[in-house]
Amino acid sequence: MKEKSLTDADYDRLAGILNHFRSERALNLEQLDGFFAALVSGPGHIHPSEFLPVLWGGEMADEDAFESRQELEEFLDVVPRHWNVIAETLQSGDVYLPLLLEDEEGTAHGNDWAQGFLRGMGLRRADWAGLLDDEEHGGALVPIFALAHEHDPDPTMRPYQETMSPDRREQLIVGMSAGITAIYRYFEPRRLAAARLSPESTSRSRREMKVGRNDPCPCGSGKKYKHCCGRPTLH
Q1: How many Å apart are CA 209 and CA 198, to the nearest integer?
Q2: d(CA 215, CA 86)
Q3: Which of 77, 82, 113, 164 has the highest CB neighbour count under 10 A?
Q4: Nearest to 128 by CA among 112, 145, 113
Q5: pTM of structure
Q6: Contact present, 74 and 221 (Cβ < 8 Å)
Q7: Residues 90-101: pLDDT tens digits?
Q8: Torsion-angle region of residue 222: left (phi > 0), alpha (psi -120 to 50) or beta?
Q9: Cα dihedral: 160, 161, 164, 169 (round 10)
Q10: Burial class (CB in 10 A: 0-12, 13-18, 19+), 17
């Protein structure tokens, strides 16, 4: 069954929750989209208990990050839905359009998205080495690295010393979008091979993101999800 795309209201709620996380390492909405794109298109399965802490920038969420249990439940509903929309888009071969936020002048820069993607790569850095060294296919990563390091504190890491023109930025964003599809296809044989070896963890080709009942609760309580936020709520 095809996942229903998130509405503007869904994205507003998700962005609001993400903004509650106080850690400087927490992701914003644009970074989250890039982060998930890397995990979905990358070389292997990554469990929610491993990557969810990246969203709030630490092992545990801030005590006041979620204003209520209902807000946490909304978070655990909207986040997987967004993941699954990305997965279904890439699997279907449709054009994947990065979710980019615009500044006050209406310009989408793409830096946060690219940095989120690199955060995703960082969870399995060694597994991405083959693509980085591949002369034929590695070019799919070039626009992502260019936007991620545009304002790098280390001047030697910046792709351009001059200010990036609007035309060049548009070209990089278009190339970034096309590159995700190429990356997804590049790693597809590896994902399928992993699914055959470990069907219990990656049996669904759509690579749905779910929190299992016996997984650690994403709220950081240390309890299993079924004994914490996954307990039935009585009304």
Answers
A1: 16
A2: 23
A3: 113
A4: 145
A5: 0.84
A6: no
A7: 999 888 999 999
A8: left
A9: 10
A10: buried
> Per this entry, what is the length of the chain?
235
Tens-digit pLDDT profile for residues 103-159: 999 999 999 999 999 999 999 999 999 999 999 999 999 999 999 999 999 999 999
Helices of type H across the chain: 8-18, 29-41, 48-56, 69-92, 111-122, 129-132, 142-148, 166-197, 199-202
Residue with tokens 């888009």: 89
Residue 126: CA count within 13 A, CB half-sphere: 0
CB 201 within 8 A of CB 44: no
- DSSP conformation letters of 25-37: T---HHHHHHHHH
Residues 6+ apart with CB under 8 A from 126: none
Give how far Cα 172 sits from Cα of 108, 142, 168, 235, Å.
Answer: 12, 9, 6, 50
Q: What is the DSSP string of 151-181?
A: T-SSGGG-S-SSPPPHHHHHHHHHHHHHHHH
